[in-house]
Design goal:
By secondary structure, the protein is of the alpha/beta class. It is built from twelve helices and 13 strands. The protein has two domains: about 140 residues, Alpha-Beta Complex (Aspartate Aminotransferase, domain 1); about 230 residues, 3-Layer(aba) Sandwich (Aspartate Aminotransferase, domain 2), CATH 3.40.640. About 35% of the residues lie in helices and about 15% in strands. Helix 8 links the parallel strand 5 and strand 6.
Length: about 400
């Protein structure tokens, strides 16, 4: 115990990102917040940002702010996320809607662009939203779902995809980081395998955006969707983002033909003509208020650099795995994440039959991980807001609750 905490203190003393820890709100009574992979902490500057918005952009400029800035906010903010986190050139990322709605738009647009193909490939353990939307689109379009069944800890491998795609495959939908185990998929190799079969590739980036450098353009990804309330700290219900590679602009046509996605919004045309480029994928009024909180987090990511964020993510999860080996494995706890930092994202999952009750105990004691059915606890470690000592306190709290 002493050696681990000494190691944690040393890691924190050497942490080049330690200066950013104070940028986040401290929750009273919480000694370890280990759920940043579900909902990021708010920044201390957020109340001032919200007050300035109410007093200025909304309260003073009123409807003029639409012309002055808000109409362009979905694409401007999308470009910033693309540049800082996604490896995406400008004009390919937009902030709009929820993850669910954007998944529907992109899945439907993708399969409609491959009318001679009849299958969507989906991982059977993927997050329910991804599976449910794929099922719904398959039903609408008379398509077949082909399920991939990878190792639950190692996650989807390129060999799984090579064995699943064919000349019938229209689209493959996968998560870059598995929401259960944290397994990190090989984006480049899998995307290549999908393209070799003539299909399109859609990546869910909900558990990688803001914590793992992603190279969408370099990997020649076709489509991607991600949320902003996890590692981008946009707050509960903050809007999602969609990436559509420039080569598909004017080819893919999204199915929710809303006013804001029209070519000339204020022409009030009698028929829908899609807007140019990524703007076509907007449908309704942009959620301006929901875009405020993430802007401060993007400032922090720009200061820190996404590569440095990823390096700290590795040291955090490595420390947790070592603590697991020493303190939790002897109690019958199972490691449900890959052991190597290069093979996992920003969270570590552990399993035990008593973890539903343990989670209730931890929450009551001010230690906040999350429980995933049937018997897993996820320790989500957001690098800019989590110290090594805090992560270690969480592991020892699990040990003590089990005892």
């Amino acid at each position: 115990m002493t050696d681990l905490f000494a190691e944690a203190r040393e890691l924190d003393a050497r942490d080049p990102l330690a200066e950013h820890l104070d940028a986040f709100v401290d929750a009273p009574g919480v000694s370890a917040y280990l759920d940043g992979n579900s909902l990021g902490r708010p920044l201390r500057e957020l109340p001032d940002r919200l007050a300035a918005f109410v007093a200025g952009d909304w309260g003073t400029r009123l409807i003029r702010s639409w012309d002055e800035q808000w109409m362009d906010l979905p694409t401007a903010l999308g470009d910033r996320i693309g540049a800082l986190c996604l490896g995406a050139a400008p004009g390919q990322t937009v902030v709009a809607d929820s993850t669910t709605v954007l998944l529907y738009k992109l899945i439907r647009a993708a399969v409609d662009a491959r009318p001679d193909r009849s299958e969507i490939v989906v991982e059977e353990g993927n997050f329910p939203t991804d599976r449910f939307i794929a099922e719904g689109v398959a039903t609408e379009r008379g398509l077949t779902l082909r399920w991939v069944s990878p190792d639950p800890v190692a996650g989807v491998q390129v060999t799984d995809i090579e064995a699943s795609v064919s000349d019938r495959t229209a689209l493959v939908v996968l998560s870059h980081v598995d929401y259960r185990s944290g397994a990190l998929a090989d984006m480049s190799a899998i995307t290549d395998a999908v393209h070799d079969a003539g299909a399109l590739m859609l990546w869910d980036l909900c558990h990688s955006a803001g914590v793992i450098p992603t190279e969408l353009d370099t990997c020649e990804v076709d489509l991607a969707v991600g949320c902003t309330y996890k590692y981008l700290n946009g707050g509960p219900g903050s809007p999602a983002f969609a990436y559509v590679a420039a080569r598909h602009h004017g080819v893919l046509r999204q199915p929710v033909q809303g006013w804001m996605g029209a070519g000339d919004v204020f022409a009030m045309g009698s028929a829908y003509t899609p807007g140019a480029g990524i703007r076509q994928f907007i449908s309704g009024t942009p959620p301006v208020l929901g875009m405020l909180a993430m802007q401060g987090m993007l400032d922090l990511i720009e200061q820190a650099g996404i590569v440095a964020v990823r390096e700290k993510s590795k040291t955090l999860t490595d420390l947790v795995v070592r603590a697991f080996d020493l303190e939790l494995a002897p109690l019958g706890v199972r490691l449900l994440s890959p052991r190597e930092a290069t093979d996992r994202g920003g969270h570590v999952t552990i399993g035990h039959p008593d973890f539903a009750e343990v989670t209730r105990t931890l929450w009551a004691d001010g230690v906040i991980p999350d429980f995933r059915y049937p018997d897993g606890i996820r320790l989500g470690l957001s690098p800019l807001s989590t110290s090594h000592a805090e992560a270690l306190r969480g592991v020892f709290a699990v040990r003590d609750a089990l005892a």
